[in-house]
Amino acid sequence: METRVKKTGLTHKLLMFVLMIYLLIPLLATFLYAFAKEWQTTVLPERWTVGWFSEMFQDIRFLDALWTSLYLCSISVALSLVIMLPAVFIITVYLPKWESFMKGIVVLPYAVPGVVAAVGLIRAYSSGPIEIAGTAYILIGAYFIVILPYMYQGIRNSLLTVSAVELLGSAELLGATRIKAFVSVILPNIWPGVMTSTLLSFSVLFGEFVLTNMLVGGHIQTIQVYLYQRVGESGHLASAIAISYFIFILVLSMILMKLGKRMNRGIEG
Amino acid sequence: MSAYLELQGIRKQFGNTNVLNHVDLQIREGELVTLLGPSGCGKSTLLRCIAGLTEIDGGQILLEQKDIVNLAPRNREIGMVFQSYALFPNLTVAENIQYGMKMRGASKGERRNRSEELLALIDLEDKRDAYPQHLSGGQQQRVALARSLAVQPKVLLLDEPLSALDAKIRKNLRTEIRDIQKKFNMTTIFVTHDQEEALILSDRVCLMNKGSIVQQGTPEELYTTPRTEFVARFMGSYNVLTKPEVLRLFERVDSTAESFAIRPESFILLNEEGRNEALYADKRIVDGNVHAVSILGNIIRYEIDAAGVRLTIDVLNDGRSHRIGDRGAVSLALDDSQLLHLEKEGA
């Protein structure tokens, strides 16, 4: 019995290993390419350099683009969190009849391709009462819509997983006001789930290119727009940017995950 | 006697369905009343209405003569235990129990004393710092009970508290709940779909169907004198018979009723040797054939065809009666005084 359990474990591990290799090989190649000076006829590069990285970091536009991406994505995700958290909570708990309607609404961003959405948005907002085409506002608005499915599903699933309706009922019967009940028993329990959707949304936005380029490409350079522009110049430089971008996202994910865990523990202890 | 908790004409609709149909119910202080019924009969909805978690469309809920319909759940002084326990996963057992007191502004010392008392009552003192997810289902339900009792509610509502637990724990916890309820003289409404649970626990059972209370009474009343076919079928393995079937079995019946019920244990199975005609002089003897036999522990349940009617008959498993079943042909002694005349549904 024991050996069989072990065997299955081994198969699983092997499968995971193969999958990891499959996923990591392109990354590894990019990584090598970013450090390669000459790489023509050999398996591994003949000579190495950190020149691409130094060139990149000396480029003020790279740091600008990184910063622009960071704050645009943060603002959009924060805005979404502030609006969606209470909205989804109210719909799930008090207006369950709206659920099926909302479910349909939130998958619409999937249904509309980025190009179509961008053209539509530019047409709608380049004239008339709200003239914000080409500005950060239209981008933040579009970003809000892009992450709607992730935020809605994430928050809703968290609420259902913890049986929020019953928790709330219990808390209210024990004498808590609705707001107090939300803060003391709902929020702490859905927080890990909410954190995960926030992180996911952030990553999605950080990597978003089509919509960004079409909406504000000429005016605002996000990291993706910058990357796109540099790809044509030098493959090595683009690799260096991609690797930096990957490491940045990795570090960010780890920080957010740690943060989520600590918050969770803080509430429990 | 005036009722402690009184429901008057409670109505509730979901869409076009009447979930609660003018429900009236009076409960004395310290009484344990069971709302029994099949799923979807409205019993849980009624409980949620009393708690204030579901708004009612009409009617009054009087607690100590005061209408509480317009009060928020937190001001009703009603405690509730949910089927899924609904313990707060982010709080320890002790914090869960103290939650209500904290919300009501009790001091830290007071809270600790009370939670220690209750932890002793539910015998979980060593689990005070554990989180709910590390407790078994039975332990979680005890914590949920303690949490509700901590704020000393006037009425305790239990919504199928035992249905998620396995049989043995359910039996133990059933007794424990009854003991605690008696100890605190807690006015309690217990919702269940399990008639055995209702009969064992309750001072009074209210059987519900389609949003109405169809019959209420002591467990014994409800079991021995079901008024309608629904009650008879729900309360036990009653044989429910139509008038023609009764006529075939008893030859004559003085009643205008259209359906009848007879309890499975009210037949006497006769075997050839033990057949003493004199003893059964006032009874009708009918011949039948055994269709199936099943042993339910201390009783044997026969399915017997007699006069073209399939009857369920229970006999005490005393080692003698079993032989009858092996043969096929049997005789039954029927007593028409055991025959219950049922009212039409909804009458």
Molecular structure report:
Chain A: Residues 66-256 form the ABC transmembrane type-1 domain. Chain A: The chain crosses the membrane at residues 14-36, 69-95, 107-126, 132-152, 190-216, 236-257. Chain A: Pfam families: BPD_transp_1. Chain A: This is Spermidine/putrescine transport system permease protein. Chain A: InterPro entries: MetI-like, MetI-like_sf. The complex is a heterodimer of chains A (269) and B (347). Chain A is mostly helical. Chain A is built from 13 helices and two strands. In chain A, helix 3 (60-94) packs across helix 12 and helix 9 (164-173) runs antiparallel to helix 10 (178-206). Chain B is an alpha+beta fold and 347 residues long. Chain B folds into two domains: 5-226, Rossmann fold; 235-342, Beta Barrel (OB fold (Dihydrolipoamide Acetyltransferase, E2P)), CATH 2.40.50.100. Chain B is 29% helix and 32% strand. Chain B contains ten helices and 18 strands. In chain B, strand 15 and strand 16 form a beta hairpin. Chain B is elongated. Classes of the chains: A mainly alpha (269), B alpha+beta (347).
